[in-house]
Amino acid sequence: MHGASFDSSDEEAAEEEGEEPAPLPLSWLPLPPAYSSAFLAVCSLPGCRFKDIRRNLQKDIDELKNCGTRDVFVLCTKGELLKYRVPNLIDAYQECGICVHHYPIPDGDAPDITTCCTILEELRSCLESNRKTIIHCYGGLGRSCLIAACLLLQLSDAVTPQQAIDSLRELRGSRAIQTIKICVLTREVDIESVYKAVASKKRGVT
Fold first, then answer.
1. Which of 41-79 are b and which e, b meaning 16 or more Cβ less than 10 Å from the residue's Cβ?
2. Catalytic option among 137, 145, 150, 183
3. DSSP secondary structure string for all residues of 54-112
4. Dihedral (C-alpha) 79, 84, 87, 92: value to the nearest 10 degrees?
5. What does DSSP say about strands 133-136 and 71-74: parallel, antiparallel, or unpaired?
6. Is 137 annotated in the active site?
7. 137 to each of 3, 87, 106, 206, how far by Cα in Å?
8. CB 3.0-4.6 Å disulfide test: which of 50, 75, 108, 164 passes with 137?
9. Contact 45, 10 (CB under 8 A)
10. Which residues are CB-contacts of 109 (< 8 A; sequence separation ≥ 6)?
11. Using an 8 Å Cβ cutoff, are 53 and 46 in contact?
12. For 49, phi and psi rounded to 5 degrees?
């Protein structure tokens, strides 16, 4: 892997010599039996270097590759990638052979239904092809968890919106899906609207 892909200064490299970052925490979703051979996880931003967070991008991507990751859904904006000091993240994924699905959603916002449906269709395609897949935003709590909750609704008619949200909070902690605009979206049951839109599209209903 080319060192130029990782935006680390000499100072950062020296700083990292004396420390060993903890493994990147991956939260694997409990998928329904029909997808028992598929794997989908939510995580925070690999390589993030912001405030007290000092991750190592190369090590994080190596971990994702070593666990068999084939696809990654990046929900951060390009401005966020610059702010969190991983401006070349997408290029780094691609150089490692990981397929990138970049859908930038501003922090604190929820995607519109059309974008959400597109993301869910691509996620489902990855799962049906048994491609181990990762979703991440910045903290892996808001946007990523919202998309994951919508996917759980799409994959099982037995799951309610609140059950999907609770499932993500069990995996990622009580702060999952707590951002104001995202919370409003879920409380207004727009999450069900997204699910119904996807379900209708699958049946060929317009």
1. bbbbbbbbbeeeeebbbbbbbebbeeeebbbbbbbbbee
2. 137
3. E--HHHHHHHHHHTT--EEEE-S-HHHHHHTT-TTHHHHHHHTTPEEEE----TT----
4. -130
5. parallel
6. yes
7. 24, 14, 10, 31
8. 75
9. no
10. 143, 181, 182
11. no
12. -130, 90
Q: Which amino acid is at 174?
A: S
Q: What is the pLDDT of residues 66-79, one digit of tens each?
A: 999 999 999 999 99
Predicted local confidence at residue 154, as pLDDT: 87
The CATH class that applies to domain 26-203 reads alpha beta
pLDDT single digits (tens) 89-107: 999 999 999 999 999 999 8
Collapsing DSSP to helix, strand or coil, 136 comes out as strand
CB 140 within 8 A of CB 172: yes
User: Considering only CA atoms, which of 118, 127, 98 is closest in space to residue 34?
Assistant: 127
What's the gap between Cα 131 and its chain centre? Answer: 15
Show me where the domains of the chain are located. Answer: 26-203
